[in-house]
Amino acid sequence: MGKTKVICFSNNKGGSGKSTTCSNVGYGMALEGKRVLLIDGDMQMNLTLSFFSEEQALELAKSEKNLYHAIRDQKDLTDYIVHTSYADLDLIPSSTLMSGIEFELFTKWQREWILSRSLQKIIDSESYDYILIDAPPTLGGWVMNIMCASDYLIIPVEASPWGLFGLANMFEFFEQVRTIRPAIELLGIAITKADERKNYFKQTLATLQELEGIHLFERYIRVDSAVEWAQDNSAPVLAFRHTSRSAKEYHELTKEILENVNR
Domain 5-261 carries which CATH code? Predict the structure, then answer.
């Protein structure tokens, strides 16, 4: 097994389909024979809820077996891994207490590298091919932590009139991160919630295609009610309804991501 690769999914705008993309790409990678660890870095716990019922997620949030306690106490993350019901797919759950993580980080030594240090033992063990991190829709010390722990960044962008709002800030923040973590690469932008009948989808696509030096994944994810049904059943759409349009699109996007990482 080669070196574990760490990919974060981040966008400072909410509603970009970030958690849905992270969960389905993670599941898609497992389908492709990869061992995957997912890390829920968002207090909204959407990634955790993609694999566990609300009752189970709240139990994990109330316990000490979640990301908040690990980061607060600067612990090795190995002991915080929870197995999902799917083969080769594990998760480190989040907690609503993550809302206070910026305060917890503020006085810590080399605070930008706390997550990286906590992940190091897992990476060195090469137990996973990929670690995928779902970042919160903010730009601050915690997201910087996530990016400093990552080899690649994927930015999901919603194909809506406000989908591109704040993207320039995202790029600027990424360049700031690169001053202390030069090895991180912007793997690309993934378009989500696309409706090909709407003009704003065409406008979003055209704008993103014009960005110089930034890869745009060819496979975009169209609007599909199967995604919402899957979320309601605490499952990735690839597992819940694998014959749906969005499931097929997420599987194709996963393959495209794997190809780009391994180029």
Answer: 3.40.50.300
How far is residue 38's CA from residue 54's CA, in Å, rounded to a whole number? 18
CA angle at residue 154 from 149 to 159, to 5 degrees? 150
Q: What are the DSSP E strand ranges found in 118-201?
A: 130-134, 152-158, 185-192
- The CA-atom distances, in angstroms, between 7 and each of 73, 86, 135, 150 are 24, 20, 10, 6
Phi, psi of 195 (to 5 degrees): -125, 105
Element (H, E) at 83: strand 82-83
Q: Which two tokens stand for residue 49?
A: 């809820």
pLDDT tens track for 153-163: 999 999 887 88
- Which residues partner with 134 through β-bridges? 9, 40
- pLDDT per residue as tens digits for the range 182-204: 999 999 999 999 988 888 898 88
Length of the chain: 263
CA 172 from centroid of its chain's CA atoms: 19
Whole-prediction pTM: 0.96
Contacts of 48 (CB under 8 A, 6+ apart): 40, 57, 60, 61, 91, 93, 94
